[in-house]
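Appendix B, record 7
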Amino acid sequence: MSNTNIDYRDLANQIKQWAIELGFAAVGISDIDLTEHEGPFLKWLENGYHGSMNYMAAHGLKRARPAELVPGTLRVISVRMDYLPPDASFAKALASSSTAYVSRYALGRDYHKVMRNRLKQLGEKIKLQVDTLGYRPFVDSAPVMERQLAEKAGLGWRGKNSLVLSREAGSWFFLGELFVDIPLPVDEANKSNHCGKCTACLTLCPTGAIIEPYVVDARRCISYLTIELDGAIPVEFREKIGNRIYGCDDCQLVCPWNRYGQITKEADFLPRDSIKDKPLTELFMWDESTFLKHTEGSAIRRIGHERWLRNLSVGLGNAPYNEAIIDVLNTRLESASEMLKEHLLWALEKQRSKGNEQKRKTARLIRIIEKGLPRDA
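Structure tokens (predicted):
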């Protein structure tokens, strides 16, 4: 069909139907004007809140200008895909400080691959309806303001933790975009913010990373520290990380809107038994080949074995005193890089300090008991 003879409103409705059939939970269409977000983005960069994520600054304002990223782009189709597993067991895993906590989005198959494949399928379906179509799918893989585009497409509003929130699904979902060069009708942007006076995410962030509503200093964020940061984790944050070895869900856990979180229908996002809620010591003993085997097709693999061990070392240092932990930490000291060794030594010092304190408490208790016993006891 010639592009000039297309009923774009009808096509937009068809696109949304196809998207739902492909497994997306919601879809919206926006124009590409993001000029209002350019100033705040530049200020965020100037403040250094992106940390070592140099790619955030590398493309300049192209991130806010879709047509510069993909010439010819006229519209962005934004999609949502839910990932909340049926048995998330957040509280149980976080409360057990000897258990490794992995952010729930990373327990299954890498969402980048799953969603990008579906978006390509959506693009091909559209292409069959028009003479010429240029399209490009993105899933957190290029300089794209996906949250601002999702808000503009009506999928939700940006919460004070900077994530997109939905009244129907909270924030337990991934976002993806399909850039297209056809003039589809756009959906009404979400102008309402339903966070109200709530500041739970700001006050309960373990490291105080949400420095003001809608602004996150990545350098303090546990997700950044355990995933994006390539070097040593600053000492000031190590205890606050607790047993979180890959990512952090705290700002979502405390959000009242997440009581409406939707359980995923995607089998690919179901947790892997080999990773979910395993003892820190068990995961720490994985050699590199075992790590690669169990993280094949997972987002976790991108951090590599060394950073995996780095994060686990911090978790082991924060765990309750256990002589077995000291033993497993020592097994890696000799072969560790300088970066990893720093974390191993920190963890060993924390464990020994806890062990000494436990011995002192035991000795005090024995003295108290002995003082209270009869002389002939």
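Remarks on this record: The first helix runs from residue 8 to 21. The chain has a mean pLDDT of 94.
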